[in-house]
Recover the amino acids of this structure.
């Protein structure tokens, strides 16, 4: 497919590059050309050589890179609004784990599709996904057209080192939409022996590793009681992060933990809405920034957040940092926007989908600037982070395919069918839980 | 106009009443009938007597009362994304006050209209508005069809007791969309003598009074330095709140301040997004709740927030309370929803627009439950507060008139004309500031 996106304002997210007027030409799954309006005449020859499948008049609205949702558990859509207002450990042990046991791979396939619809409405073009049955998640993303970086939720009860290695080898070479990074659920759900083997796997492939880390004060305390050190120090000592990677949440981090992050260039993948809703705390993002620790943003799962909306996360990240630091200048809009796009891509090892640039993957969104929350236009990045909303997303393109446009989805299946399927699954699980 | 809203789910927000299937019949500006689907046959006679101007199939989506935005400075749209990332006092003194001097009443008329468009997209059906030139604000609301409770921003430099009294008498009897409550900007912008006269005015009309209160720690400290007591105690001693009213923000409140609030039944009108963005702090909402202090919610102005979105405020309110209290059970969705609707109406003295009930004003919104963020439907109030978004608002009706539907506005003027007018104003003011 050759798609021409013309008459647009363009925010490439390349460092310091201001918004300019121009157009983007997409050939198959890549950005073939980006041209400023006043340089278009230099491209007459290239233009003549392309036969367009679609020419989309952007009507002076904004093209920018899609958001990278760097921590998700998509299929937890089935628990949205089912259990809320309880603390994390109780929420996990009393509700989440028992309900999850009732999920089949096929259930996860459909429930993931529901989440994909929601990501698309918020301009999210790739997810970093940890959940049960990675194969069905991958299939749901392939079938809908979503880009997905899988990781393992390995723990003492589900998956195994062998399974992870097999998935790692297979899903890094099977489909252009899917890649796979090594991972495990958390220090507190994995035995020392399992973590030792996890470290060996990381060393075997010289690969980065990702895990839940320092989400709650309790988690850190219990690790200290168990091993005498924080989860970060414990995992560092095991050599798990010898080739980089990152931690999800990173709310309760000591100076020592942060030094390790800095030294190993680990990514802090923050989840502000989830950390509020589960009363876990507010991560010290400005402190990460001062120490040069790179930050990416995730929504976490729809049972803990409960929505999958990068605009909410972006405002929260900036606002919470301002109030935590007592400094209204903390974490300005441009920094947050970089975390939600470029830094997210880097954290997910998707450096070919980070900015809008010729040769990069065509993961592009169109933002409607003609809605009242985006007027007047003094400063587009600030509008995006401080007053922007998923309602401004009027087109989401992944890998050169338009999957969402003006409220309509193009994901190979009707939305109503996906809802009906999920409804059946939810009813079955709840009825069997009641028995 | 007689409008039939049928095939709906209905959340009346009357205490403890669950969501039910049914329809609402609007006659002119009021709710004439609300009927559950299974009781419709009892209403055949009434139905036959009405000739419908419009019958709207709600397709099993949700009708509920519109949101009450209990603290706004609408015309500050002109400064959105113009000055951000600076602390409140500097923001006010260096940017806001000098720029505001350049605003005419006509400017405020147009800039308010821009804000009204945004309120409608978020299902906000009435605003509690404090800004310069109340007459032009009232006119903008009358012309667009918005419900507005005006209050005075009286301070040492703008407005006067005489002007406020004249406005109070006039705007409480001029138009069904407009009412007026007594108010002043804040302790720190009013002399003791002016506040004494404010108190006399309140006593003369036995009327409630509203003001900015305890927004920043600095404000409280400076009042203590000036008068030896907190702003709350100082204003209480002056007798200003003898007939009730409320305070906007209420972030930095002592136990003594809260006791006064409780005793006088004052409303704490909270503005969570603004308090984050200006690094003012997090209001102790759960503490208000424990003490029986009623709470309403406001967006504050679009230069401090920067968006006018009740869904963002609702999630923030609940999430911030959970993390402040270290208790994921704090301030659940139903409580927050009441604050955003019923309690807001009470704070604004709009008790005839609080719930959906026969005889009440027809300020009604329709929420699209067929978007992915609202699926599955385990619990509608939780879906609204935890995963809901302004993108779910598909119809906003104020005083029996549909002002917004499926992304289109019906406000007596084209959206593009409003944008263009505001753009002209913004450019003129910025150019003159640069001179």
């Amino acid at each position: 497919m050759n798609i021409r996106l013309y008459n647009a304002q363009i925010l490439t997210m390349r460092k310091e590059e201001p918004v300019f007027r121009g157009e983007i030409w997409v050939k198959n799954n890549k950005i073939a050309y980006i041209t400023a309006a006043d340089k278009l005449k230099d491209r007459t020859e290239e233009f003549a050589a392309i036969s367009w499948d679609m020419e989309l008049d952007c009507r002076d609205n904004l093209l920018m890179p899609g958001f990278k949702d760097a921590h998700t558990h998509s299929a937890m859509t089935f628990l949205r609004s089912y259990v809320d207002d309880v603390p994390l450990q109780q929420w996990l042990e009393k509700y989440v784990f028992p309900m999850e046991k009732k999920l089949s791979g096929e259930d996860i396939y459909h429930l993931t599709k529901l989440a994909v619809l929601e990501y698309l409405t918020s301009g999210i073009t790739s997810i970093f996904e940890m959940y049960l049955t990675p194969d069905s998640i991958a299939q749901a993303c392939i079938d809908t057209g979503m880009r997905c970086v899988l990781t393992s939720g390995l723990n003492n009860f589900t998956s195994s080192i062998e399974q992870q290695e097999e998935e790692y080898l297979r899903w890094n070479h099977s489909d252009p939409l899917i890649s796979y990074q090594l991972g495990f659920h958390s220090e507190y759900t994995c035995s020392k022996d399992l973590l030792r083997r996890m470290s060996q796997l990381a060393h075997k492939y010289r690969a980065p590793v990702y895990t839940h880390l320092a989400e709650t004060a309790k988690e850190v305390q219990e690790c200290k009681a168990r091993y005498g050190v924080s989860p970060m120090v414990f995992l560092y000592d095991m050599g798990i992060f010898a080739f980089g990677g990152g931690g999800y949440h990173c709310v309760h981090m000591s100076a020592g933990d942060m030094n390790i992050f800095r030294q190993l260039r680990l990514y802090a993948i923050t989840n502000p809405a989830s950390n509020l809703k589960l009363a876990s705390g507010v991560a010290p993002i400005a402190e990460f920034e001062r120490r040069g620790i790179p930050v990416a943003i995730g929504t976490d799962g729809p049972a803990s957040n409960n929505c999958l909306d990068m605009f909410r996360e972006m405002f929260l990240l900036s606002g919470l940092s301002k109030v935590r630091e007592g400094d209204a200048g903390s974490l300005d809009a441009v920094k947050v926007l970089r975390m939600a796009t470029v830094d997210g891509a880097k954290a997910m090892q998707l450096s070919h989908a980070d900015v809008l640039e010729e040769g990069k993957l065509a993961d592009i969104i169109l933002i409607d600037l003609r809605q009242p929350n985006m007027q007047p236009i003094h400063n587009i990045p600030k509008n995006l982070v401080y007053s922007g909303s998923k309602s401004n997303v009027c087109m989401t393109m992944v890998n050169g395919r338009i999957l969402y446009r003006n409220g309509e989805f193009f994901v190979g299946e009707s939305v109503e069918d996906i809802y009906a399927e999920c409804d059946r699954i939810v009813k079955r699980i709840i009825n069997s839980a009641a028995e």
User: Anything to note?
Assistant: Chain A touches chain B through 70 residues (CB under 8 Å). The CA atoms of residues 33 and 46 of chain A lie 9 Å apart. DSSP finds 15 helices and 17 strands in chain A. The radius of gyration of chain A is 21 Å.
